[in-house]
Amino acid sequence: MKTLRLLAVSVAAASLCACSMLQPKAVTPPAFYALEAGRPSGTAPGPVSTAQATSTLVISPVRAASGFDSQRIIYVREPHKLEYFARSEWIDTPARMLGPLLVASITHTGAFKAVVMTPGSASGELRLDSEIVRLQQDFRTRPSRVQFTLRVYLVDEKTRRVLTWREFDGDLAATRDDPYAGVVAANQVVQTVLQQVSQFLAQRPN
Predict the structure, then answer these.
(1) DSSP string covering 126-149, please?
(2) What is the pLDDT of residues 103-126, one digit of tens each?
(3) CB 109 within 8 A of CB 200
(4) Strands 72-78 and 126-138
């Protein structure tokens, strides 16, 4: 009987061990982050021409350079090499998140009769094309820095002529060298660049 009991205990222990080995390991789900609208700046953009204030500005879907057109949060540790965090992602692509932020920021200036996104049924006299050149957390310095570059073109919708264009750069140190601190810095630097874009459009000469 003693031998049988020992055999039963051994079998049970082996079964428990086998079950534990068959159970899948818990996988930590990725954290998702957003680019969000900040509090509009109270700074006046400067004089606005009558021609501009009566124009409707159409915002084209924002494009992104290769490597920056996904939900992956990009970082760099050496030149020419893009890497991404394994467990931290944007909730949507930065390009898609940026469109509504552009509309809100430019609308706040009062420089245009209306600011609308495409695709849509609305048409306007002017169109803004934009491209994210880079949005990355740079770990080649300590503390790490978030770098954001946005290129914009203002186009006459009737003639398809580029009226003006400019590239805006933002650079801000993160408070810590981790993805969340990078996201916080990214939101701040994006808001700064959006304000610069809005003021550039509001103050442009006819």
Answers:
(1) EEEEEEEEEEEEETTSSS-EEEEE
(2) 999 999 999 999 999 876 678 899
(3) no
(4) parallel
pLDDT tens for 129-169 read 999 999 999 999 999 999 999 999 999 999 999 999 999 99
Q: How far apart are the first and last CA of the chain?
A: 101
pLDDT in tens, 147-158: 999 999 999 999
Q: By C-alpha distance, which of 164, 107, 158, 159 is closest to 130?
A: 164
Secondary structure (3-state) at 200? helix
- Return the residue matching tokens 């915002």: 59
Q: How far apart are CA 76 and CA 144, in angstroms?
A: 10
Q: 58 and 119 in contact (C-beta within 8 Å)?
A: no
Long-range contacts of 165-168 (CB under 8 A, 24+ apart): 166/200, 167/133, 168/193, 168/196, 168/197, 168/200
Domains of the chain: 2-203 (3.40.50.10610)
